[in-house]
Amino acid sequence: MDAPHIRIGIGGWTYEPWRGSFYPQGLAQKRELEYAAGKLNSIEVNGTYYGSQKPETFAKWHDETPDDFVFSLKGPRFTTNRRVLAEAGSSVERFLASGVLELKNKLGPINWQFAATKKFDARDFEAFLKLLPATVAGTRIRHAVEVRHESFRDPDFIALAREHKVAVVMAGDAEFPQIADPSADFIYARIMGTSEDHAEGYAPAALDAWAGRARQWQAGETPDDLAGAGAPPLPANGRDVFLYVISGFKQRNPAAAMALRDRLR
Fold it and tell me: Cβ distance 9 to 224 under 8 Å?
């Protein structure tokens, strides 16, 4: 089995303020993905949350990035923004059949993000988790759920996620509940605290801290300075780590992600 990887990335790659700050002045926009993928080793795609992409688009993303690059995809909002989650099956199937497998070995986790108004209902949520396939056409699919209501800070929720081997997205430096209990063989973290006040988005001590937590996750440990739901600890098996610098002062996010990656080399 391969040693666990730490992947550090940003949300998307098309953002006008990055032109001339992250991207070199004059870089052709069609080369921005290629450039970003040369500086980081993962990107979370937000566009798939808002609308479908063509299979040729996924194939193009695959071909424009290095061999060891990975894309995480946001699941479509039409799947998660519904009152009865048990009715989301056809939407899950459509998304997974939409061409995402054209990413081949570069397909990372699917992040199913829920609205901040969605509350934890064990039966409702278990019905959704049962709809998430472990494989599609022989390809392993990793799933993460991003919940944003305080009611999910519940050991029963973590138990459900563990039963279905689904990661719970760990929100760092955010207004959303921080739920750091591991529930799968990978960690999916989104940190949202970049500031205009720091050239690298975060103060050096904060970057050191996040790099240290990433190493703990990779080793199978759970950092003791992050809030959880009070679920029982899991054995310290190594885990892949997907850590994305998201939101905050977005213009600084690539600098923060690169600073983290430098610390983890």
Answer: no
pTM higher than 0.90:
yes
Contact status, residue 226 vs residue 170, Cβ threshold 8 Å = yes
Nearest Cα to Cα of residue 214 among 181, 183, 188: 188
Helix, strand, or coil here: 33?
A: helix
C-beta of residue 29 within 8 angstroms of C-beta of residue 262:
no
* Sign of the torsion angle spanned by Cα atoms 144, 116, 100, 94: positive
Q: How far apart are CA 230 and CA 249, in angstroms?
A: 31
Token pair of 81 as six digits:
């923004």
8 A C-beta contact, residue 53 and residue 73 = no
Task: Report yes or no: 156 and 119 within 8 Å, Cβ to Cβ.
Answer: no
Which pLDDT tens digit goes with each residue over 230-251? 999 999 899 999 999 999 999 9
